[in-house]
Amino acid sequence: MLKTIAICLIFISPLGNVYAQQKQLAFHKKMKWLLGTWTLQNNSDVFEVWQRTDKHVFEGVGYQNKNERKEITEKMSLAVKNNKVYFIADVPHNKKEVFFEVIVWTKNEFTAENLQHDFPKRITYKKKKKNVVVILSAEGRQQIFTFVKNNF
Predict the structure, then answer these.
(1) Which of 7, 60, 65, 97 counts the most CB atoms within 10 A of its CB?
(2) What are the pLDDT digits (tens) for 6-45?
(3) What Rg do the C-alpha atoms of the chain give, in angstroms?
(4) What is the pLDDT of residue 145?
(5) How far apart, in whole angstroms, are the C-alpha atoms of residue 135 and residue 16?
(6) Rounded to whole angstroms, how far apart are CA atoms 26 and 129?
């Protein structure tokens, strides 16, 4: 009996890794539109810059220009952990990174949520032509930001 279980685990374990890699590749393939530099509409001093840091990871940095200096306001990434896709936010006022599980994704948007977080509980990125709309929400409260893709 134990021999049968051991043999099953030998064959099933790699399948979990293959599934996670396929899920990650599918997600990153659909989200390629996110890569690049985005400027906040109506405020040319606020940016998000997204890049692929390796085959399976997107990393983003939110920053603003203040007094001719670049001030980082947030570090973000999109990655697969434990067979789930996460939007991971690292902001100065939180003691550690906050994980938001990506619950929906299509070719033009994704939504991630963490119902235990204070604000936001849900983060949505929607591609609309040359813009991306970012919606942060929790319990009836919303913040909406529209970013314009830079062409350089």
Answers:
(1) 60
(2) 444 444 444 445 555 565 567 778 889 999 999 999 999 9
(3) 18
(4) 97
(5) 32
(6) 21
3-state secondary structure of 35: coil
- Please report the pLDDT score of residue 81 as a whole number: 86
> At CA 151, angle to CA 45 and CA 143, rounded to 5?
45
Identify the pLDDT of residue 15: 45
CATH number, domain of 82, equals 2.40.128
CA–CA separation, 109 and 119 (whole Å): 20
Whether 122 and 111 have beta carbons less than 8 Å apart is answered as yes
Element (H, E) at 24: helix 2-30
The total number of structural domains in the chain stands at: 1
The domain containing residue 101 runs over which residues? Answer: 2-149
Cβ(101)–Cβ(111) below 8 Å: no
Q: Which helix (H) or strand (E) holds 104?
A: strand 98-106
Q: How far apart are CA 65 and CA 69, in angstroms?
A: 5
Q: Minimum mean pLDDT among 2-6, 68-72, 126-130: which range?
A: 2-6
